[in-house]
TrEMBL record:
InterPro entries in the cross-refs: Acyl_CoA_acyltransferase (IPR016181), GNAT_dom (IPR000182), Ribosomal_N-acetyltransferase (IPR051908)
Keyword match Acyltransferase: yes
EC number(s) recorded for this UniProt protein: 2.3.1.-
Protein keywords: Acyltransferase, Transferase
Protein name: Putative acetyltransferase
Entry keyword annotation includes Transferase: yes
UniProt-recorded Gene Ontology molecular function terms: protein N-terminal-serine acetyltransferase activity; protein-N-terminal-alanine acetyltransferase activity
Amino acid sequence: MPELAAARGYRLRGWTEPDAELLRAAAADPYIPLTTTVPSPYSDAAAAAYLARQRRRTAIGTGYPFVIVDPDGRAVGGLGLWTGEVPLRGWATVGYWVAPAFRRRGAAGAALAAAADWALGELALPRLELYVEPWNTGSIRTAERAGFRRTGLRPAHQLVDGRPRDMWHYAREGDPGASEHDE
């Protein structure tokens, strides 16, 4: 599992046991557990199982589950780069979340840009895709600032809280010359 530097002093690294405290905060959020595998309700056993799943995903080659770490060394969120279906579909998917106490500080944007640059550059993935609910303007801004382009609305694309939800589809293509979001 690599460690990646990101803008503004953020970085990405693999999950460790002390990150269970981040999971406790994420599990208390009303939305994060609905769209991720973050355990809710939180328990020490559920957190241990989550951490084991993250390590297993990298070991079996289905993806790179990262923790987003702020400049002060605090774990503030998660980012998953899921590569398991690249041979079948030709692209990887990415998703991200930030615990409520750390939002609106640029963590998700810095992490997404760094992970996308690494995936499209060093891993030579041809394309990354992500999905965002139309009401989630913060996540939409994050995706667009990281160089992802909206390609269309996918009606009833994902179950959220047991109900099918429309999702904006975003994609970013590999470009060996330069990053799309560099200014």
